[in-house]
Amino acid sequence: MPSPKLNEISNAAKKLKLNPEVEQSKSYPTFWWESSGRVLVDKELPKREILEKISNIIKTSRSKK
């Protein structure tokens, strides 16, 4: 399964009402030359729970295609 795209993460966070804020120009420190971006969300739940819910939404949306 391919890595989730920035827009998939953002859309999933919107569905969870986590007020996502996309920062397009950010990069992961290990791959500083790649501007992959990041999504900031309201921390209403523990991080692991947020990640699981976002990943489930992405899996569901991909399976519908």
Q: What's the level 1 CATH class? A: Alpha Beta
* First-residue to last-residue Cα separation: 14 Å
Order of helices and strands: HEEH
Morphology: globular
Overall pLDDT: 91
Tally of DSSP helical segments: 2
The percent range for strand residues is: 5-15%
> Poorly predicted ranges (pLDDT <50, ≥5 residues)?
none
Oligomer: single chain
Query: Which structural category fits the helices and strands?
Result: mainly alpha
Short overview:
The protein is mainly alpha-helical and 65 residues long. The chain is 43% helix and 9% strand. It has a single domain, classed as Signal recognition particle, SRP19-like subunit (Phenylalanyl-tRNA Synthetase, Chain B, domain 1, 2-Layer Sandwich).
What does this protein look like?
The chain has one domain (6-64): Signal recognition particle, SRP19-like subunit (Phenylalanyl-tRNA Synthetase, Chain B, domain 1), CATH 3.30.56. The protein contains 2 helices and 2 strands. A two-stranded antiparallel ribbon has the order 1-2. The protein has helices at residues 6-15, 47-64; strands at 21-23, 38-40. The longest helix is centred in the C-terminal third of the chain and has 18 residues, at 47-64. The protein is globular. Helix 1 (6-15) crosses helix 2. Helices cover 43% and strands 9% of the residues. With 65 residues, the chain is mainly alpha-helical.
